[in-house]
Design a protein that fits this description.
Layout: E1 2-4, E2 13-16, H1 22-32, E3 37-42, H2 46-62, E4 69-74, H3 80-93, E5 99-102, H4 117-145, E6 148-153, H5 157-160, H6 166-186, E7 191-198, H7 211-219, H8 229-240, E8 251-254
Parallel strand pairs: 2-3, 2-5, 3-4, 5-6, 6-7, 7-8
Antiparallel strand pairs: 1-4
Helix pairs in contact: 1-2, 1-8, 3-4, 4-6
Bound molecules: 1,4-dihydronicotinamide adenine dinucleotide (NAI).
Length: 262
């Protein structure tokens, strides 16, 4: 589905993976108010993705951005061919992305003794392999144009590790290594690559936490609250902006102070 608030667009084009809900939706809405055109990728929930696209149109129009365009595109980025199809559909509908935001992510938690190889691979495929593939696809035109931004959504768990999340922590730590390596590879062409590492953010990924664990978590967060998707979106929007043009290879924790160093 394509929703257009006006044809004619000279706006920056952004691909947000997993933009249908949670943090991804918040990123899309925040960027929509700032005049970007956005491809919103989703895996299964078409109506949620189309709702995000419509909310983006409303947000763009109320902010006076009449030329922005929004498109919801289905793809299961766990496979390489779907990443390629997604990327070429973005190019066909909106144009080559100026900004890539690798947000889609999944968990399959278990203690390692009970963690199956399938669950390890499933998490790595979406959280790391797809990030590698999409960075590779998007970087070709960014490097040619000597302009572009890549923002990868990692996690504080990628910095600290977490019991029951060996697969997820490995994938998110991998994203940090990938981010820093690409930041070095692309810096000579003015393409920046950064990661954000959210702490505990109130989304469907964390709503299953039981009250006891939630209370314990709050004790470990100096700001004494869970984060919101908008907390993450605000930092991502900053990294997309001209104000962040001298920032690359960084990992910004958005975690209420949880992982601050002594
Ligand atoms: P969510 O579960 O609400 O949304 C995940 C998004 O990823 C959905 O739009 C879904 O369609 C998409 N997705 C999942 N599998 C996919 C696949 N195979 N192909 C294409 N798209 C797929 O998650 P949430 O909480 O909004 O998380 C977004 C990102 O932030 C994830 O990378 C997550 O690991 C990360 N994060 C979340 C934290 C939290 O507390 N919620 C904390 C730290 C990081």
């Amino acid at each position: 589905m394509t929703v257009t608030s006006e044809s004619l667009s000279q706006h920056q084009i952004v691909l947000v993976t997993g933009g249908s809900r949670g943090i991804g939706r918040s990123i899309c809405l925040t960027l929509a108010t700032q005049g970007y055109s956005i491809a919103i990728s989703y895996v299964g929930d078409k109506s949620a993705a189309e709702e995000t696209a419509q909310l983006c149109v409303n947000a763009a129009l109320s902010a006076g951005h009449y030329a922005s365009r929004f498109v919801a595109l289905q793809a299961n980025i766990a496979t390489a061919s779907e990443c390629e199809r997604l990327y070429s559909e973005v190019c066909d509908t909106l144009g080559s992305p100026d900004i890539l935001i690798n947000n889609a992510g999944i968990t399959r938690d278990n203690l390692i003794m009970r963690m199956s190889l399938e669950d390890f691979d499933a998490v790595l495929d979406v959280n790391l392999r797809a990030v590698f593939l999409l960075c590779k696809l998007a970087s070709r035109s960014m490097l040619k144009r000597r302009r572009g931004r890549i923002i990868n959504i990692s996690s504080v768990v990628g910095l600290t590790g977490n019991t029951g999340q060996a697969n997820y922590a490995a994938s998110k730590a991998g994203v940090i290594g990938l981010t820093k390596s690409l930041a070095r590879e692309f810096a000579g062409r003015s393409v920046t690559v950064n990661a954000v590492a959210p702490g505990y953010i109130d989304t469907s990924m964390t709503e299953t936490l039981d009250e006891r664990i939630r209370a314990k978590l709050l004790e470990s967060i100096p700001l004494q609250r869970l984060g919101t998707p908008d907390d993450v979106a605000a930092t991502v929007a900053f990294l997309c902006s001209d104000a962040a043009s001298y920032i690359t290879g960084q990992v910004i924790a958005i975690d209420g102070g949880m992982t601050m160093q002594a």
